[in-house]
Amino acid sequence: MSINSNALSTYKLLKATAEVAEQSLEGRIQHYRAHLKSEDKELRTYTQKAAADLLGVNNRTLKRRHDQGDFDHLHIQKGANGHYAYTLSNIFAMAEILGINADHRDHSDKLQVIVINSLKGGCGKTTSLVNLAAALATTNIKRYRIGIIDLDPQGSSSSFFPSSEHDPITVGDLMRDCIELEENETWEQLVADSFQKTHIPNIRILPSGMDDFYFEHETATELKESSSYEQTRHYHKLKERVIEPVKDEFDIILIDTAPSLNFMFYNALMASTAMLIPVHPEAVDFDANNKYLKRLGEIYHTVAALGHEGWDFMQFLVTNYVKGNHSQRDIVKDVRTAFGRQVMSYPINHSSAITASSSSFNTIFDQKTSDSLASRESLLRAQENIKDVVDELEMLIRSNWASTQSSLD
Ligand SMILES: Nc1ncnc2c1ncn2[C@@H]1O[C@H](COP(=O)(O)OP(=O)(O)OP(=O)(O)O)[C@@H](O)[C@H]1O
Ligand SMILES: [Mg+2]
C-alpha cells in the first residue's frame, strides 16, 4: 500500500511534534519536582493539637503518653520551632498504640467500587476524585483502605500520586495480559504489588499509561476473531483480572475514567458498585450531560444483561461551582429539580486553592500549607467544602456495610 506524499508530510510533522511534546513534558516534570522541593512528595505534617484532634484524644493525654515514652520508637521528627511535626503515618501508628481500632469493612460487607464518569471532558472528574480520596483517607482516623484505579490513559490521577518506580505496571498492562509472572509468583501477588503505595499511607494507586490505549484496539481485534462472549469476556477484564484478586485488601476503590464510552468504560461499569457523575453547571455542559445520560442507559443495559448486579447508589455531583454566579445557580436548580435526591447535597465549589494545588498535582489535603500557592483562608475553605461532600459520600458507602450500622437501625 503506498502512502500519499501529503500524508507522509503530515506523519513527519506529527513525529517532530511528538519529540517536542516529549521534551516539553520532561521539562514540566522537572519543574514540578523543583516546586515540590524533593523528588518524593512530602506529606503535610500535623501539630500536636491537630494530631490530638484527628485521634480524638485530649492534647494532655498525648503529652502524657509522650512523657511515658510510648511513642519513642516512632522517632517523630520535630519542626524548626522545636515542636513535634507528626506525619499521618506517625498518627496512624499512634492510633494503634492508643488502641484506636481502624474502621475497616467486615469481611461480609461489600467492597465499594465507585466509578466517576461523564462524557463531558474537563468537568472535574479527576480533581473531584483525587480530593475526595485524600479527604476520605486523611481527615479521619478510620484508616479506610483506599485504592485508586486510573482508567484514563492520559494519567491525570496517576500524576497526583506519582510512582516511585520508573516504569510501573499499569491497569492496562493487567487487563491486556501483557505481563509475565515471575517464577513462584501468583497473579494475585502481581496485581496486589501493582497497586503502588503512595505518599498517603492508606491510599494505593494502580496507575495508567499511554499504552493502555491499545486495550481498545486489541479488544476490537479480539472481537472480530471470536464468536462468543465467553471466549473474550472483554467487559469483565477489570473486574475479574484486576479487582477480584485484591478485593480483600481494600474498603473502597475509586475509578477515574476518560471522557469516553469505550471498552475501558464498559469494564468500569461492569466492576462498579456505585456511580458518581460530575456535572459542571454551565448550560452547554448540562445539555451534554443529558445527552450522555440517554446513552448511559443503553450501555448499562448491555452490562446488566452480562450479569452486573446493580448499583448501591448513583449520585450527581455538582463540580467547580462558582458561588454567586446567577446562571450557574439557575442550572444547579435545574439539576436538582430534574434529579432530586440523586444530587449530592453539597457542590464542590470552584476554589483558587484547588486550582493552585492541581497545578502542581497536589490535593488540598496532602499539601503543606506553606507549599500552597493559594491563601490559607482559601485552602481551609476548600477543605471544609470537600469534607462536607465526603461526609455524605461516606454515609452512602457505609449504608452498604451491615456491620457498621447501629443496632437501633
Ligand atoms: N473545584 C474546582 N476548583 C477549581 N478548579 C477546578 C475545580 N474542579 C476542576 N477544576 C479545574 O478544571 C480543569 C478540569 O478538571 P479535571 O481535569 O478534573 O476534569 P476531568 O473531567 O477529569 O477532565 P478529563 O475529561 O480531561 O479527564 C482542571 O484545570 C482543574 O484544575
Ligand atoms: Mg480526568
UniProtKB/TrEMBL annotation:
<dbReference type="InterPro" id="IPR050678">
    <property type="entry name" value="DNA_Partitioning_ATPase"/>
</dbReference>
<dbReference type="InterPro" id="IPR027417">
    <property type="entry name" value="P-loop_NTPase"/>
</dbReference>
<feature type="domain" description="AAA">
    <location>
        <begin position="112"/>
        <end position="301"/>
    </location>
</feature>
<dbReference type="Pfam" id="PF13614">
    <property type="entry name" value="AAA_31"/>
</dbReference>
<dbReference type="InterPro" id="IPR025669">
    <property type="entry name" value="AAA_dom"/>
</dbReference>
<protein>
    <submittedName>
        <fullName>AAA family ATPase</fullName>
    </submittedName>
</protein>
